[in-house]
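Project standup — Tuesday

K.O.: blocked on the structure for the chain from last sprint. Re-posting the sequence here as requested.
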Amino acid sequence: MSLKEQSQQLNNRLDKCKHKLEAAKSRGDNEMITQFTDEIDALDKQINSLKSKQEYDLNKERKRLADLPFFREITREEQADIGKLKKSVKGLVIAHPTTKLGQAMHLEVMTGFAPRKF
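H.V.: unblocked you, prediction finished:
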């Protein structure tokens, strides 16, 4: 299971527990209230742990790309046939400014990173 799927699953469980907690509070069921508050706390810890793992992975990838010796903007013509460009340049990684990686790198345009000039 990917980190994204796992995160979504935990958030769904957290949402479900919050709704059940509200129902237990309206009934005045103290035993269920303590059970759901404990479960909510545990889920919050898991979600925060998962978020920090995602941040770590994103920063690791950002650093790896920043360490590549060559990068440049991808032109419109190259964007039109990106598959051909990727086949011609070994090790090319393309970062788009709207992705998490692109936003972390503060990119303005679609940029290609490679170990050698292309």
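K.O.: great, moving the ticket to review. Residues 11 and 47 are 7 Å apart (CA to CA). The longest strand covers residues 70-73.
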